[in-house]
């Protein structure tokens, strides 16, 4: 069997098109566009390239986009004051503070200072609570889990009554996606198991999964014989396993591998996400959707 490929690169294009149309429509009817500010402290190269990509995507879909670069020596008090300024700015609907922050700044204090109604990353405890309650309480689902669920839905995978096994229990992927899949509603209604390093029979749990979501950060952790024939396999892992010269640019680029042995797994699974080009492109895409939704809440277009 060769599995259906669920490609994040294709789904991203579909969703960004939808967002672009909706932004133009809201601009015409209400004279407003979503505003997204990204605060970058210091010059960490990975953060700079991620923030640049966020900015480009925001511009592409017609948002007002601000990149606020701050010196790495900024004090915690000054950073808190900056967040307060954007909390009060009605033209800003989403505030992002790029992590990691320098050691002299308390990351938790900073993230908790963002107005939960502008927390488009969905990491504020209020939004974590809303996600746990589910249904119409949810305002901003965290972006990577939201992207995973979107891929499952757009990939036509049945989740109602399905056995979903999530490998990994991090706050940014494992726990939230498990919580989302167990809720009532479309793309959910599943029976969910979370496994981690203390789990006794990892292979046995994975073998039961109709939908296997792997977010461990261990290249090739999931072996092909752990996969139930016909299952949907979502590989969240992004692992740098070496470097190569890009044919396009002639520059050195990282060789990326997922947490699943893709070549063998695609012969057993019913559907599977590739790495790269799978879950990766979905995170920024869902950030754009959360920012659009933030404006829609403000305008009373969403409840
Ligand atoms: P994390 O915080 O390091 O958590 C990894 C989780 O996997 C932990 O709960 C850990 O268990 C579990 N785990 C690790 N090795 C295991 C093993 N051998 N057997 C069973 N469980 C194991 O990682 P994360 O932030 O969730 O990220 C996971 C992966 O997804 C990484 O490769 C990351 O780069 C990728 N990622 C991709 C995106 C994207 O594509 N947009 C976004 C976020 C993350 P314990 O809790 O017991 O230690």
Report on this structure.
This protein is α/β, with parallel strands linked by helices. Helices cover 38% and strands 17% of the residues. Helix 6 packs across helix 10. The strands form three sheets. It has a six-stranded parallel beta sheet with strand order 1-11-8-7-5-6, sandwiched between helices. It has a three-stranded parallel beta sheet with strand order 3-2-4, sandwiched between helices. Strand 9 (239-245) and strand 10 form a beta hairpin. The protein has helices spanning 8-30, 45-60, 76-87, 107-113, 125-133, 143-154, 174-182, 202-208, 262-265, 282-298; strands at 4-5, 35-41, 64-70, 94-97, 163-167, 191-195, 211-214, 232-235, 239-245, 252-257, 271-272. NADP nicotinamide-adenine-dinucleotide phosphate (NAP) binds at residues 144, 167-170, 172-174, 195-198, 202, 215-218, 221, 236-239, 279-280, 283.
Task: Detail the poorly predicted runs.
Answer: none
What small molecules does the structure contain?
NADP nicotinamide-adenine-dinucleotide phosphate
Mean pLDDT: 97
Class by alpha and beta content:
alpha/beta
Main beta-sheet annotation: 6 strands, parallel
Helix share of residues?
25-40%
Largest sheet: spatial strand order: 1-11-8-7-5-6
Extended strand count? 11
Number of helices: 10
Question: What share of residues are in beta strands?
Answer: 15-25%
Q: How far apart lie the N and C ends?
A: 44 Å
The SSE order reads EHEHEHEHHHEHEHEEEEHEH
Rounded to an integer in angstroms, the radius of gyration calculated over CA atoms is 20 Å
Given the C-alpha coordinates, what overall shape results? globular
């Amino acid at each position: 069997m060769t599995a259906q490929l669920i490609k994040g690169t294709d789904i991203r294009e579909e969703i960004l098109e939808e967002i672009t149309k909706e932004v133009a429509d809201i601009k015409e009817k209400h004279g407003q566009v979503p505003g997204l500010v990204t605060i970058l402290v210091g010059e960490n190269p990975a953060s700079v390239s991620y923030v640049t990509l966020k900015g480009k995507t925001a511009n592409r879909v017609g948002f007002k986009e601000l990149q606020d670069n701050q010196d790495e020596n900024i004090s915690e008090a000054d950073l808190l004051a900056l967040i307060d300024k954007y909390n009060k700015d009605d033209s800003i609907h989403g505030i992002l503070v790029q992590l990691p922050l320098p050691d002299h700044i308390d990351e938790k204090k900073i993230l908790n200072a963002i107005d939960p109604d502008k927390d488009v990353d969905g990491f504020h405890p209020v939004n974590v609570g809303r996600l746990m309650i589910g249904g119409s309480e949810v305002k901003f689902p965290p972006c990577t889990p939201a992207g995973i669920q979107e891929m499952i839905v757009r990939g036509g995978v049945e989740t109602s009554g399905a056995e979903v096994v999530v490998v990994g229990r991090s706050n940014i992927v494992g726990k939230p996606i498990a919580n989302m899949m167990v809720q009532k509603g479309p793309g959910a209604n599943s029976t969910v198991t979370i496994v981690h390093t203390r789990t006794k029979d990892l292979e046995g749990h994975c073998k039961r999964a109709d939908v296997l979501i792997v977010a461990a950060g261990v290249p090739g952790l999931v072996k092909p014989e752990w996969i139930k024939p016909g299952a949907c396999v979502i590989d969240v892992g992004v692992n740098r396993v070496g470097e190569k010269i890009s044919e396009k640019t002639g520059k050195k680029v990282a060789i990326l591998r997922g947490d699943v042995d893709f070549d063998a797994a695609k012969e057993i699974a019913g559907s599977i996400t590739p790495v790269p080009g799978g879950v990766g492109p979905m995170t920024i895409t869902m950030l754009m959707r959360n920012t659009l939704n933030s404006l829609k809440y403000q305008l009373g277009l969403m409840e």
